[in-house]
Structure formats: structure tokens, C-alpha cells
Amino acid sequence: MTCREFIDFLIDYFEDDLSAREKAEFDRHLAQCPDCTTYLKSYEETITLGNAAFADPDAPVLSNVPEALVQAILASRQRNM
Questions:
Q1: Can you give the residue ranges of every domain in the chain?
Q2: Cβ-contact 36, 28 below 8 angstroms
Q3: Is the pTM of this model over 0.85?
């Protein structure tokens, strides 16, 4: 497995949608590639932070968040409803 293939399989890895053979190849590559190990950790942290950021949709907005960003997020939510 190449690093590119590793990245292509990330979503399937997290959704536990890899076959046993694919998972073995994924894990083998991960054991040999420090760059992909770092990338995987960063990806996991991003997922964790994203989930935490949206855990409470009614939480107050921090005072240092730019108003334009708040309005863009609210507009996006309206379009996705």
C-alpha cells in the first residue's frame, strides 16, 4: 500500500468498512510509515475536535469569534435544513 492509497482508505478505516485483507495492508503500512502514522493521529484529533465543537449546538459563541464567521455558519445551517 502506498501513502496515497492509505489516505484513500481512511474513511473506510474509520467506518470499519475495510475487508480483512485491506485492514491488514492498512495496518502493515501504518506500522512502517511514520508520516502516515502522524497523519492518522492528526485526522483522529480533527474528528474528535469537530465532534466536540458541535456537541452542543445551543452553546454560547465565544466573544473572540468574528461575527462574519458566526453569520456564515448560521447561513450554512439554514441552507442544509
A1: 3-79
A2: no
A3: no
